[in-house]
């Protein structure tokens, strides 16, 4: 229990870190970001894995499995490895030929974190909003 930290403290740490990083990058970002990237979503969004890891509902993720829709990219693979997770379960390996996915698989293998596809038994989920 000595390393236990309430989730709200972790979120505050993350917000403070993000703010410091933003201030430090402010001067160099214009030269790092190509202008035609500014109007795309890709440089603004964080991947679901980062969001899940930063907003976890436990003290840490050591020994946990992560279930993802798409195979994690290389950046998320680094986070998963650093978080001490034990397994990656994915639904689809849509970008299996990309450098990001190849690098992620290489890192998982080096870190001895197994990954496996989750074959769903059902192909759809029906949600009835009205029961009449
Ligand atoms: Zn990612």
UniProtKB/TrEMBL annotation:
<dbReference type="InterPro" id="IPR002125">
    <property type="entry name" value="CMP_dCMP_dom"/>
</dbReference>
<dbReference type="GO" id="GO:0008270">
    <property type="term" value="F:zinc ion binding"/>
</dbReference>
<protein>
    <recommendedName>
        <fullName>dCMP deaminase</fullName>
        <ecNumber>3.5.4.12</ecNumber>
    </recommendedName>
</protein>
<keyword id="KW-0479">Metal-binding</keyword>
<keyword id="KW-0545">Nucleotide biosynthesis</keyword>
<dbReference type="InterPro" id="IPR016193">
    <property type="entry name" value="Cytidine_deaminase-like"/>
</dbReference>
<dbReference type="Pfam" id="PF00383">
    <property type="entry name" value="dCMP_cyt_deam_1"/>
</dbReference>
<dbReference type="InterPro" id="IPR016192">
    <property type="entry name" value="APOBEC/CMP_deaminase_Zn-bd"/>
</dbReference>
<comment type="similarity">
    <text>Belongs to the cytidine and deoxycytidylate deaminase family.</text>
</comment>
<dbReference type="InterPro" id="IPR015517">
    <property type="entry name" value="dCMP_deaminase-rel"/>
</dbReference>
<keyword id="KW-0862">Zinc</keyword>
<feature type="domain" description="CMP/dCMP-type deaminase">
    <location>
        <begin position="1"/>
        <end position="101"/>
    </location>
</feature>
<keyword id="KW-0378">Hydrolase</keyword>
<dbReference type="GO" id="GO:0005737">
    <property type="term" value="C:cytoplasm"/>
</dbReference>
<dbReference type="GO" id="GO:0004132">
    <property type="term" value="F:dCMP deaminase activity"/>
</dbReference>
């Amino acid at each position: 229990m000595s390393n236990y930290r309430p989730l709200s403290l972790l979120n505050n740490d993350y917000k403070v870190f993000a703010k410091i990083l933003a201030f430090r990058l402010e001067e160099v970002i214009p030269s790092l970001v190509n202008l035609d990237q500014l109007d795309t979503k890709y440089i603004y969004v964080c991947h679901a894995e980062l969001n899940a890891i930063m907003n976890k509902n436990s003290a840490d993720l050591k020994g946990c499995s992560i279930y993802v829709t798409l195979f994690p990219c290389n950046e998320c693979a680094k986070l998963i490895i650093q978080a001490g997770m034990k397994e990656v379960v994915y639904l689809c390996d849509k970008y299996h030929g990309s450098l990001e996915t190849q690098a992620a698989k290489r890192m998982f293998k080096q870190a001895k974190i197994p990954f496996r596809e989750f074959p769903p038994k059902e192909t759809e989920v029906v949600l009835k909003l009205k029961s009449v």
